[in-house]
Every structure is written in C-alpha cells, then in structure tokens.
Amino acid sequence: MAGIDVGKAFLDIALHPAPPHGSPAKPGSKPGSKPWQVANTVEGWDALAAQLTAAGVTCVGLEASGGYERGVADALRARGLEVRLHQPLQVKAFAEMHLRRAKNDRLDARLIAAFTALRAEYQDARAAPDPRLRAFADRLVFIDQAIEDASRAKLRLEHQLEPRLRRQLEADARRAGDRAARELARLAAELRAQPDLAERLDLLLSIPGLGEKTALRLVVQMPELGRLSREQAASLAGLAPFDHDSGKHAGERHIAGGRARVRTALYTAALPASYRWNPALVALRTRLQARGKTHKQALIACARKLLIYANTVLARGTPWRPATEPA
Does pTM top 0.90 for this prediction? Predict the structure, then answer.
C-alpha cells in the first residue's frame, strides 16, 4: 500500500508497511522507508508510477483535494494501480483515533497509507469514475457559479441607487443568467449524444416535478442511482434523517453529509413539485403538515421521496407511473 498527500505543487508519498531501511527515493529509483516527494506534474506522475511499481505497490490511497488529485489518480490508474479516494473527514477521524496531533505533509502521507491499508481489509474498491461524467460535473459547477453570479448582482442591485451603477449590475446579472442558460442547453445536448446517458435522463424526466436541470444533476453527480437501496440513496444525497438518541433521550432527527449540490437541487425541485406538479408529493406534503411537521421538514421528506422515485425508475428501466395507475 502507499499513501499520497496531495498538494497543489507537490505530492508526498509514503509506503505501508514501510521497508525496514532505505532513503527517500529519487526519480527512477526504488522508494525507501522514508516518505519522499515528487512534483504534481505529468513528469512527476510518470516518475511516481514507475517508483511505486518498482516497490511492488498495488494500491494507492489519496485524499480528495479540490481537484488537485485528479491528474495523479488518472495516471496511476492508467499504469494498472488501484486508486482509492478518501474523504478528508475519514482520514482526520483515523488520526484522532490514534491520538495523532503532529501534522505535516510527510506525516499525512504515512497516515493516508495506513488508513488505506486498514480500509482495504473490509471494503472493496470502487470502480474508476466515468471520465465523461467528470467533465459534465465540471460544467455543472460552472453553471452553478454563473447562477450564483447573477444572484449576487441582483442582491447588490437592491442596495444601489446610482443609475450608472444600477445599469452595470443589471447587465452583469443578465450576462450571468444568459451564460448559465446557454451552458445548460449545451450540456444537455452533449449528454444526449451519449445513448446510455440519454436513456437515464429520459427516465428521470418522466417523473412529474423533476425538471431538466435537476435530472441532469442526478445523471451526472449520482451515477450510482438505480443500483442502490432507498436508504443508501438518501444517505448518499444527504437526505437521510439520522438518529440522535441516548438512553431515555430521543433527540430530533437531522439530515447531514452527502452530496450538497444534489441535495440542494432536490430540495429546490421539491417545492413546486409538492405544491403543484406531482400529485403524490402534494398528498405527502399535505399529510405531513397535517400531522404537525414544519414546512421545511415536509419539503425535506418530499425531496427524499423524489430521490426514491428517481432511484426506482432507473432500477426498473421504465418510466415513472403513479401508484394509482393500473399495471
């Protein structure tokens, strides 16, 4: 096993278990017992892949690092190495479990290597992500940022009285909104050029209340849908209510974690769907509010139900049908 602490400019690498002797590896040499460093560049990735292969490493663990880990992960996978991507929270919890307080890049690399070895004992490796979906996901983030730019410009407009500056802010909001609309249409067209993704998109669009933007997000950012249980899907999207009980105390259930952009999209879609477009969700919201649930609690439940509908139609491979419709 090996662990890599990813930085913008450099990668720090450690083996687990470390060899009994040696020194930091140089490009083209066999790694030794101490962590070593390579540049986070194409040349560095190639040198690292050769070093790890020479050391007999078959599995490499990395932390998600805002995208700086993508290049090295792809390069190592291309060389036949198994790559496991960990969430920073997982590695941090592992360090706290071992009462580790000291922190630097080389210590982090050793910690990631040890955590990778432990996790490999009880959890199978996940398949490499679909490169098409990664590119689409980056585009979705760009669209989100354009929408956020438009919202910020509109907010500033509310507090700006000078006509000249108001015209500038109005133009900024209009440009950002137009940019988001154009990119969303282009993304949908390019995704539909992929037959398997187009089929998934059409299945999701058959669900009343699930618009194109939300359906695109589910196709791109939740590719696991259709292969999960309803509980797993809700947890992955951050829409699962977690218990908070101890002894005789029964605390409030709260949602937490998961994929924030997916959760936000589903919550946003649940509002119009549960008031107008989806009769099943309208009935669910009405029933929950009659039982004393708050507006927000009812909408979260509707968002979770919308996700369950999506998971179901993808699992069955058939369009959504109301429960009252005869089979």
Answer: no
Tokens encoding 122: 């009880």
Could you report the per-residue pLDDT of 259-293, keeping only the tens digit for each?
A: 889 999 999 999 999 999 999 999 999 999 999 99
CA distance readout (Å), 186 to 135, 137, 151, 172: 13, 13, 22, 21
Taking the C-alpha atoms of residue 37 and residue 48, their distance in angstroms, rounded to an integer, is: 9
Tell how strand 36-39 and strand 10-15 pair up: antiparallel
Dihedral pair phi/psi, residue 36, rounded to 5°: -135, 175
H or E element at residue 38: strand 36-39
Report the amino acid identity of residue 306.
L
Structure tokens at 74: 């792809």
Distances (CA, A) of 243 to 64, 234, 305: 28, 14, 19
Exposure b/e, 56-65, CB count within 10 A at least 16 = b: ebebbbbbbb
Q: Whole-angstrom Cα distance, residue 151 to residue 149?
A: 5
**Confidence band of 188 (pLDDT split at 50, 70, 90):** very high
The DSSP output letter for 274 is I
Q: Residue ranges of the alpha helices (H) in the chain?
A: 42-54, 70-78, 88-97, 105-122, 131-157, 163-192, 195-205, 212-221, 230-236, 260-272, 279-290, 295-316
Exposed/middle/buried for 187, CB within 10 Å: 0-12, 13-18, 19+? buried
- Taking each helix axis from N to C end, the angle separating 42-54 and 70-78, rounded to the nearest 10 degrees, works out to 50
Note the pLDDT tens digit of each residue in 192-238: 999 999 999 999 999 999 999 999 999 999 999 999 888 888 888 88
Task: Look at phi and psi of residue 257 and say left if phi exceeds 0, alpha if psi is from -120 to 50, else beta.
Answer: left
